[in-house]
Amino acid sequence: MPGLDAEAHQLWPTSAREVAAAGVAALFAFPIRIGAISLGTLELHRRTPGPLSTTQLAHTLAVVDTAAWLILAMTAGDSTAPCPTRPIACSSTRQQEWP
Q: Does the model's pTM come out above 0.70?
């Protein structure tokens, strides 16, 4: 949810009020799954409203993919299993800060 607008307050009156009071202006939830197997959810929040940029979305999806494979490997008891994922291209000179 890129912004906590009136619709959010209508859908989740208690939660939206508490989240807004904590300074959160945008919420994002990404299912962690492999095929039909649901493993969890990655929840992100930030203080500024608006959607994720294309780069932020790509990075988030790479993290979700990595988390899914790591959870699967840990569940199977294989801590050495390779993690098939796309590499994340980040600048080596600075850390990206998300608003």
A: no
